[in-house]
Write a structure and sequence with these properties.
The protein is an alpha/beta fold and about 230 residues long. The protein is built from five helices and seven strands; from the N terminus they run βαββαβαβαβαβ. Helix 1 crosses helix 5.
């Protein structure tokens, strides 16, 4: 928190999809936001700054962050790779792990020690962490986020820092059009529509706020009934 009392959040995947929706929500709620992505979405807001970084380059994360600190970290960067047994691509597993898990680990490891007491960490997971046919590699990395969040929540609880996972089902983002997931198309949740990015952003914003101080180490589904 700076001298004016304005909170600062670092959000990955800020250029599109869920990450962009979270950035927009936090700016609306009065946060200062640093958005991490490979490309700059050109957001025109005095309280927004873009930090160019390829999160697949794990060794560049800590040097790029430098001495940057924040009251909150939201790791929303993600991608989808689908495949069934007998046709799994080992390189897909490596990419998914590096972006979803290793990047989260490097970011939190750099930022948590200098995060103020009462800080917040939210990892964007997936309903796929529960296991979905054709998405074993993707789901495995999202399940790993839950284990990390629970461990970090225990470590950081004495400082009042919470760590949670927000896990959406199929969400109306550009990632749904990714050709890499053509073998495993999204299914509409029981509510009859896709989850909206703004709905994921709203829950994330709540978890970053003061009224969520007793929620930590949890995976919270935003699934439209898909996990029932």
């Amino acid at each position: 928190m700076n001298a004016t009392g304005q909170r600062h959040a670092i959000v990955t995947g800020a250029s599109s999809g869920i990450g962009a929706a979270i950035v927009a929500r936090l700016l609306r709620d009065g946060w200062r936001v640093t958005g991490i992505s490979r490309s700059d979405a050109g957001r025109d807001d005095p309280y927004y700054a873009h930090l160019p970084l390829d999160l697949l380059d794990a060794g560049a994360i800590a040097p790029t962050l430098g001495a940057l600190g924040a009251d909150a970290l939201v790791h929303a960067a993600g991608l989808m790779r689908a495949g069934v047994l007998g046709a799994l691509d080992p390189e897909a597993s490596r990419i998914l792990w590096r972006l979803h898990v290793e990047a989260a680990e490097r970011l939190a490891d750099a930022l948590a020690p200098r995060m103020p007491d009462g800080g917040r960490i939210v990892l964007i997971g997936s309903r796929g962490s529960m296991g979905l046919a054709g998405r074993s590699q993707y789901g495995a990395t999202k399940a790993a986020l839950v284990a990390m969040a629970r461990a970090w929540a225990q470590e950081l609880a004495p400082r009042g820092i919470t760590v949670n996972v927000v896990a959406p089902a199929a969400t109306d983002t550009p990632m749904l059009q990714d050709p890499a997931r053509s073998s495993s198309p999204p299914k509409l949740p029981p509510i009859g529509r896709l989850v909206r990015p703004e709905e994921v952003a709203a829950l994330t914003a709540f978890l970053l706020g003061p009224e969520a101080g007793a929620i930590t180490g949890q995976q919270i589904m935003v699934c439209g009934g898909a996990s029932l």
